[in-house]
Amino acid sequence: MTGSVVESLMAVAPALNLALAGMAVVFGETFIGKGLDRRWLVSLALLGSVLGLLFTFLLWEPASTASYSVFQGLATVDTFALFLGGVILLCTILTLISSVDYLRRFGLDRGEFYALVLFSATGLWVMVATTHLFIIFLGLEVASIALYVLAGYFRKRDRSLESSLKYLLTGAFASSILLYGFAMVYLATGTVDLNGVAAAVESGEASTSVMLLALALILVGLGFKVAVVPFHMWAPDVYEGAPSTVTGFMATAVKAAGFGVLIRVLTVGFGSYLPDAGTMLFWVAIATILAANLVAVAQSNVKRMMAYSSVAHAGYAFMALFVLTQNTPGASGEAVRGLLFYLPAYAVSTLGVFTIISFLEDRRGRGLELEDYAGLYRRYPGLSMGMAVFILSLGGIPPTAGFLAKFHVFGAVISCGVESGSSQPLALAVVGILGSLIGLYYYLRVLIFMYMHEPQEDDRQFRLPALGVSFVVLVTAVLTLWLGLGPAVGFGAADILGWAEAARP
Amino acid sequence: MISNAPVSLAIVVLLAVAVPAVFVLVPRLLGARRASSERQTPYECGLLPVQDTKSRFSVKFYLVAVLFILFDLEVAFIFPWAVVYDELAVRGFLEMLVFVGVLFLGLMYVIRKGALDWD
Question: β-strands A75-77, A68-70: how paired?
Fold first, then answer.
């Protein structure tokens, strides 16, 4: 479908809502000024993102029959874009809600924060809703620049500034590598639209060596963004220093968008060159899973541990990308579906964890060590229960979302091995399972501290969890269980696996 | 599309290495080596340096400079629009209104937040 301006604007309505809400928040912060109750700004931000989610549902039906290609083909709104866009919007909504109490306790409850989250989400949405390489880059930069600022939002804390600076430097470096990859694609094919690239590859006009160089550069650039070994060095410091709710957003929405772009670029643009990327993806996945899980064991800071955990999960997701390179059509379909299920499953559990982390963090930045979680269940039985659900999900224990997500991704890798008869996928599956076992050690350690250690004597007072915190923990816990149980027992018309199936590009 | 892409890429790489190499090597081989106090001073657009560059200056300069770049860059988008104004017609005009409107909101924000006040 190609159509009028109105149709174009309707098709990108979710991003438009985010951007307009962001500008409205800036407007409110600018003109209504000093005496303003910031709750109105948060409500405005939430309204924009909830409307965005609503439009996502409204667009789903028409997009599933014929995807929108609007703005002269610059934006491609298909079910794939809407699915990942929905995940990004969900992460945005939960981040906004959990940030209110967190920022208020630090006296930093400003409209700018919410506006930047919305602008970042806009960029991420744009990234997944296009096949045009420049628009991918545009979205990536809009999202990243907002995040550089958000990472340094606690400007009086050295850690936060360090986080912002490291993210900026490595992010800019990664962006330039990615852009160089896009330039190579243009050199080889004369176009920057992935469909055009695919056509040029098919007709044999594209130069193989330049396309392979482009593929390597793009994988490195996006590898930085989603933080896989050996491009993960920035992640622990950035995740630790950034405000906890921002870290949650970075670990979920940004990863979802990054993997969305990876899937689209690999499946749409590079088609016949994919088998050559197999070895690279194989070793990256193995290195990521093993290194991240092993280093996470040694962490005593929960935020740092979660950073390595997020790197490890990017490794499991890379296993699914590896399957795409193996010329096994059946398993490839399974892998994309598994990965698309993995992203929201991982997102809800991680957002829940970071909401609890942000609640336990105090003004001086304490409360982030594993010891601080000792005996937590006596003070906060509800939050501890939620934490247990998230931790089990991240560790991959049934009946949670994390188990089912791992089940589908590992299943795809194994059926790829069966289909192709090669031993490489099976080796990868074994490494994945080993990594999950190591992961269980440090995940369960949090539970042991919470439930089996005596609480420390300290001066910290009991705070009643704010409504927003309780709400987010409740919603993410319910979603974690629903994603884990729903598809397995087949209840609910809106079966998320069915959506993921429909969203395959 | 471009059938000799690897060749073009090789030429670019070659030029990228060769041009700086020539710039560095040729003066070294051909240039006279006479040390004098003028030669040792840093080149600053022809002006004589008056003091050490490591002195501290107000961070407000930075803010003003960044804001200047930001609003200066918008002109880069307006020039090409102005050139094809007739072809874009009303739609182009409305689109530019949206663009300038967003920038205007940014300018209002900057002014209201006091980013342009020196004190």
Answer: antiparallel
Cβ of residue B113 closer than 8 Å to a chain A Cβ: yes
What ipTM describes this predicted complex?
Answer: 0.80
Write out the CATH class of domain B5-112. Answer: mainly alpha
Query: CA nearest B103 in A: which residue?
Result: A23
Whole-model pTM: value is 0.92
Tokens for A424, please give them. 């490489």
For the beta carbon of residue A267, count every other beta carbon within 10 angstroms.
19
Residues near B95 by beta carbon (within 8 Å), at least 6 away in sequence: B88
Q: What's the number of CA atoms in the CB half-sphere (13 Å) around residue A481? A: 10
Q: Between the CA of residue A178 and those of A224, A251, A500, what are the distances in Å?
A: 9, 20, 27
Q: Give the span between the Cα atoms of A481 and A216, in whole angstroms.
A: 38
- How far apart are the CA of A247 and the nearest CA of chain B, in angstroms? 27
Report pLDDT digits (tens) over A313-353. Answer: 999 999 999 999 988 888 888 899 899 999 999 999 999 99
How many Cα atoms occupy the beta-carbon half-sphere of A14 within 13 Å?
34
User: Measuring CA to CA, how many Å separate A20 from each of A10, A17, A257, B94?
Assistant: 14, 5, 20, 17
Q: Which residues of chain A have pLDDT under 70?
A: 1-3, 33-36, 458-460, 488-498, 500, 502-505
Torsion sign, CA atoms A126, A129, A134, A136: positive
Question: Burial level of A252, CB count in 10 A (0-12/13-18/19+)?
Answer: buried
Chain B residues with CB under 8 Å of A210 CB are 5-6, 9
Of residues A143, A43, A149, the one with CA closest to residue A100: A43
List the one residue out of A180, A82, A169 whose CA is nearest residue A137.
A180
Q: What is the pLDDT of residues A282-298, one digit of tens each?
A: 999 999 999 999 999 99
What whole-number distance in Å separates Cα of residue A3 and Cα of residue A18? 23
A199 touches B: beta carbon within 8 Å: no
CB contact under 8 A, B1 and A184: no
Domains of chain A, by residue range, sit at 5-502
The H or E element that residue A76 is part of is: strand A75-77
A199 → chain B, closest CA residue:
B1
Give yes or no for a contact between A300 and A369, defined as CB atoms under 8 angstroms apart: yes
Whole-number pLDDT of residue A33: 63
